[in-house]
Design brief:
Elements: H1 2-10, H2 13-16, H3 23-30, E1 36-40, H4 52-58, E2 64-68, H5 77-85, H6 87-101, E3 109-114, E4 117-125, E5 128-139, E6 145-154, E7 184-185, E8 188-190, E9 196-201, H7 205-208, H8 214-231, H9 244-252, H10 260-274, H11 287-294
Parallel strand pairs: 1-3, 2-3
Antiparallel strand pairs: 4-5, 5-6, 7-8, 8-9
Helix pairs in contact: 5-6, 10-11
Length: 297
């Protein structure tokens, strides 16, 4: 999440036009006079949670220079164990090491990746941010860190918090409170005895945690759907098999919804908005406009 925020802030508005960025967000980025974006992590490179692909994408922009301080490349026994246990961690660390020793280029914007800095205070006056105070941390030997008592004030004008994501526990559904995920096997939800619960499946962050890009989400969903289709012949039939029963249920309760045809209508509407501007689409942001567009015939 932190890298996603940093990448959007650091890139130029023109670079984002090839994405499905909404108009209001693009306008905000166009007015953005940022020159430097800083990302702070409490632990070291071997403990970073982003993927190699997420990391490499940062350096693809012709306008953004990624900078890593060589002093932030530090490892202890726990870090070395993490490197040896995971090819992904090893790839992330190697990329960071390469960036730390290369010469700084001349791209107009800079994205600084800081490790071993724990934010302790947001500095400001009259409701405006004027800085961020961090405490330098150090590795303790097992991959965790402790504060050193050394503080640094950074001259920044805005602070965005990206300290992780934890799913919410739903009543009567098994839940791992440590990982924030639902126990499963290939998407099949498991009970306390690790036995699949018939007809209950998960996908996405509630299944694997808040990691990965769109490609990971596609693979995750495919696995779950494959399990569902495999199990379908043995699942209990619906009490009301008429497909229109769902529509009647929602209408009776006054719940706004859209159908597959409605999604197609919205898709066509967004593409029509983007065509005059040479864009694939312009995303609709407001829910009311989305519903209105989906109901057009």
């Amino acid at each position: 999440m932190a890298l996603d925020v940093a990448r959007v802030l650091a890139k130029s508005a023109e670079e984002m036009l090839v994405t499905e960025i909404p108009d209001n967000v693009h306008a905000g980025l166009a007015a953005n006079a940022v020159t430097d974006v800083h990302v702070f992590g409490r632990r070291g490179p071997a403990q970073a949670k982003f993927t190699p692909l997420e990391l490499r994408e940062l350096d693809h922009s012709p306008t953004v220079e990624v900078i890593v301080d060589p002093e932030d490349i530090e490892f202890d026994d726990g870090s070395i164990a993490a490197l040896r246990a995971s090819k992904q961690v090893d790839m992330v660390v190697k990329t960071l090491q390469e960036w730390a020793i290369r010469d700084i280029g001349t791209r107009p914007r800079r994205l600084h990746l800081h490790f071993f800095h724990s934010p302790t205070a947001i500095l400001g006056t009259d409701g405006h941010v004027t800085g961020l105070r961090t405490e330098r941390t150090e590795l303790t030997g097992d991959g965790t860190v402790r504060g050193t008592g050394t503080f640094h004030d950074w001259d920044v004008q805005a602070v965005y918090r990206a300290v992780g994501y934890l799913s919410t526990h739903l009543t009567d559904l098994p839940f791992d409170h440590v990982t924030g995920t639902v126990p499963h096997s290939q998407g099949r939800v498991l009970d306390m005895d690790d036995t699949p619960i018939p007809g209950v499946y998960v996908s996405g962050w509630i299944k694997r945690g808040p990691i990965g890009l769109i490609g990971h989400t596609k693979g995750c969903s495919s696995e779950t759907v494959t399990a569902l289709l495999t199990d379908a012949p043995t699942l209990r039939p619906a009490a009301h098999p008429d497909p229109n029963a769902v529509v009647r249920f929602l209408n009776e309760r006054g719940i706004e919804f859209t159908t597959w045809q409605g999604w197609k209508n919205l898709d066509a509407y967004e593409r029509a908005l983007g065509a005059p501007h040479g864009r694939e689409r312009i995303k609709v942001v407001e829910r009311a406009e989305m519903i209105q567009a989906s109901q057009q015939t």
